[in-house]
Amino acid sequence: MTGAARGSGPTPGPNAGSNPLPDPVRETRAMIAGMAPRPVPGDVCFVTVGEAEVTALLPSARAMMREPEGVTLVLPLAHPRCPDGALALRQITLAVQSALDGVGLTAAVSSALAARAIPCNVIAGACHDHLFVPAARAEEAQQTLAALADATG
């Protein structure tokens, strides 16, 4: 990533100058109370591919991460590259613009979901945190996170 990291000052985005990003939230209680979890429609799967496949698959990907084993992509579950029997996950985006150097949001979210035995994988973007939970438990996860936000606010 070029420019300043999220949380260290404003970073020009695609609308730089016309719509600057607000300052990110750093205070733990404010991040949790303001997380406003939002479900993202559609199930996804995580797949690991070789570098040679990335260019063709990237337009379909919701997220990408390079790892020693290959490139992990988050793809729509209906994508042909998702294997039969892949774990169907649903994305929940936290609407709060949390600072990358903020402390406690991921721990609070993970703890609340773990208390209900709901698996959760987190990917941080420049502006928001994105949670991936089993699709079959997505509504329960959403309700759990909303209750946590309400109890904290």
Looking at the structure, the CATH topology is: VC0802-like
Using the coordinates above, name the CATH class.
Answer: Alpha Beta
How do the SSEs run, as a string of H and E?
A: HEHEEEHEEH
Strand residue percentage: 25-35%
Per CATH, which architecture? 2-Layer Sandwich
Roughly what percent helix?
Answer: 10-25%
Q: Would you give an account of this structure?
A:
It is a single chain. By secondary structure, the chain is α+β, with helices and mostly antiparallel strands. The chain has one domain: VC0802-like (2-Layer Sandwich), CATH 3.30.2130.10. It is built from 4 helices and 6 strands, in the order H-E-H-E-E-E-H-E-E-H. The chain has a 6-stranded antiparallel sheet. Strand 2 and strand 3 form a beta hairpin. Helix 3 packs across helix 4 (138-152). The longest helix is centred in the last third of the chain and has 15 residues, at 138-152. The radius of gyration is 16 Å and the shape is globular. The model is unreliable at 1-16 (pLDDT under 50).
Brief overview:
This protein is an alpha+beta fold and 153 residues long. Helix content is 25%, strand content 27%.
Please describe the structure with a list of short key phrases separated by commas or semicolons.
disordered N terminus, 153 residues, VC0802-like, alpha+beta
Helices, strands, pairings?
Blueprint: H1 28-33, E1 37-49, H2 51-57, E2 63-67, E3 70-76, E4 89-94, H3 105-114, E5 121-124, E6 129-134, H4 138-152
Antiparallel strand pairs: 1-3, 1-4, 2-3, 4-6, 5-6
Helix pairs in contact: 3-4
